[in-house]
């Protein structure tokens, strides 16, 4: 008989820590709570199935080349953890540092990109500016002719960036957490909180109330739905975000190429499918499906930039729900309620942060104060105005 990677548990009536949401962030948080802080009386409550949210719907791009120092801190922390994750968890997650390019198509793009390369270097992050010819050398299938609708004026390049296999990551984190004694509870939706004044004492769930010393929310877009039950409004909007894969093709591209202006990005999965992502749908929603027009624009742009894709057939498209904050940066930290912690607002780019977010969030929960890397991401910044505006680096999804 094969041994399952993790056990789906019945919930107990009480835990030291409850983590809401078994996406990558919730699982990583539980894993690091147990491994780094010795807090093992932990349950991860998931309303559906483990990693059935954005975790298994994303396009797996990992990079740390955001603009601001705060972002360099958290995303680079995550990238360093990715670099040791397989060894740490004892399982393959197909982490592949194949490099990520961000194309510039306009003079404005070019200036912004060069500024970002310089900022990245000052923050100790590997970053290069490539000419169109250098781009062509790395990505021979790209069209760099100047008469193109979206001429390639150059690109930023982060060689240490890349991809990992999202479901393997979830399973490896779940397995690691389970081995350390964490309870993973599926089909258990959190519907509200129990409280004593301003102190949270547990959660109400579809499987009954469960008490907890601390409650940590990692429920992506549904985090704001949950805090609304406490009268706490979060500045987070949920939007559909779509992606697609082609039929299996021969190897044609061995790096990741993104394009802010035309809202398309591409890499090739190990088994040969082209993985293409788009920008977010403009409207708000929780339906995990987006509009066909977005996919159409994305495919048209991809075929213009990479004419060989004209031969590929779309195998499937899908959508997730991304939780976008006003400055395109996450919210991590304490809340006005004792014992309630937030990790949300990762928008279109939270997969890359998975180990880093979990690591920093676990530390924040264990010590009841923000981890130094989480400090700039407090909820309070929307009151003080100390925003971490990453719209430039997050303009195309990821
Ligand atoms: C199409 C697409 C492509 C993307 N591509 C990339 C990419 O290439 N790179 C990148 O870095 N990021 C990417 N992202 C973003 C990334 O997927 C997310 O930012 C990241 O997965 C968020 O992780 P999470 O654990 O917070 O959320 P999720 O994985 O969504 O986990 C939240 C979990 O909470 C559960 N939940 C919700 N409400 C409740 C409740 N009341 N009770 C119990 N459980 C609840 C949900 O079911 C879900 O499983 C992409 C997203 C999409 C949709």
Summarize the helices and strands and which ones pair or pack:
Layout: E1 14-20, H1 24-37, E2 42-45, E3 61-62, H2 69-89, E4 100-104, H3 107-122, E5 128-130, H4 132-138, E6 154-158, E7 162-163, H5 166-179, E8 183-185, E9 190-196, E10 199-205, E11 210-217, H6 222-228, E12 237-248, E13 256-259, E14 264-268, E15 273-280, H7 292-305, E16 314-324, E17 331-334, E18 340-344, H8 354-367, H9 381-384
Parallel strand pairs: 1-2, 1-11, 2-8, 4-13, 11-18
Antiparallel strand pairs: 3-7, 4-6, 5-6, 9-10, 10-11, 12-15, 12-16, 13-14, 14-15, 17-18
Helix pairs in contact: 1-5, 1-8, 2-8
Residues 20-26, 45-48, 52-55, 57-61, 189-190, 218-220, 222, 226, 241-243, 277, 320, 322, 346, 348-352, 397-398 line the site of flavin-adenine dinucleotide.
Short summary:
GO terms for molecular function: nucleotide binding; sarcosine oxidase activity. With 398 residues, the protein is α/β, with parallel strands linked by helices. It has helices spanning 24-37, 69-89, 107-122, 132-138, 166-179, 222-228, 292-305, 354-367, 381-384; strands at 14-20, 42-45, 61-62, 100-104, 128-130, 154-158, 162-163, 183-185, 190-196, 199-205, 210-217, 237-248, 256-259, 264-268, 273-280, 314-324, 331-334, 340-344.
């Amino acid at each position: 008989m094969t041994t399952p990677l993790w056990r789906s548990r019945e919930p107990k009536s009480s835990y030291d820590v409850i983590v809401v949401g078994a996406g990558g962030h919730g699982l990583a948080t539980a894993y690091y709570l147990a491994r780094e802080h010795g807090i093992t009386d932990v349950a991860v409550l998931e309303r559906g199935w483990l990693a059935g949210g954005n975790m298994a719907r994303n396009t797996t791009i990992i990079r740390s080349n955001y603009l601001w120092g705060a972002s360099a801190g958290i995303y680079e922390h995550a990238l360093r953890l990715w670099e040791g994750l397989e060894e740490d968890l004892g399982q393959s997650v197909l982490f592949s540092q194949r490099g990520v390019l961000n194309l510039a198509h306009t003079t404005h793009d070019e200036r912004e990109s060069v500024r970002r390369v310089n900022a990245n270097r000052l923050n100790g992050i590997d970053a290069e500016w490539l000419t169109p010819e250098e781009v062509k050398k790395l990505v021979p299938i790209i069209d760099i002719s100047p008469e193109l609708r979206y001429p390639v004026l150059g690109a930023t390049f982060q060689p240490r960036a890349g991809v990992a296999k999202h479901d393997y990551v979830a399973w490896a984190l779940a397995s690691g957490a389970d081995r350390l004694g964490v309870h993973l509870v599926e089909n258990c939706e959190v519907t509200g909180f129990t409280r004593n004044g301003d102190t949270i004492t547990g959660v109400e769930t579809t499987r009954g109330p469960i008490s907890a010393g601390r409650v940590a929310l990692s429920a992506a877009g549904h985090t704001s739905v949950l805090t609304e039950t406490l009268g706490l409004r979060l500045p987070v909007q949920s939007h559909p975000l779509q992606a697609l894969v082609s039929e299996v093709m021969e190897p044609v591209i061995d790096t990741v190429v993104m394009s802010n202006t035309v809202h398309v990005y591409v890499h090739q999965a190990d088994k040969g499918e082209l993985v293409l992502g788009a920008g977010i749908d403009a409207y708000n929603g929780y339906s995990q499906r987006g509009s066909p027009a977005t996919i159409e624009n994305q495919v048209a742009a991809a075929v213009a930039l990479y004419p060989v894709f004209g031969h590929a057939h779309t195998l499937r498209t899908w959508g997730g729900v991304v939780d976008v904050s006003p400055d395109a940066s996450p919210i991590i930290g304490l809340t006005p309620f004792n014992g309630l912690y937030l990790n949300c607002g990762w928008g279109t780019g939270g997969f890359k942060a998975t180990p880093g977010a979990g690591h920093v969030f676990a530390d924040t929960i264990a010590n009841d104060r923000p981890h130094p890397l989480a400090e700039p991401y407090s909820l309070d910044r929307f009151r003080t105005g100390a925003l971490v505006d990453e719209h430039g680096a997050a303009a195309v999804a990821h």
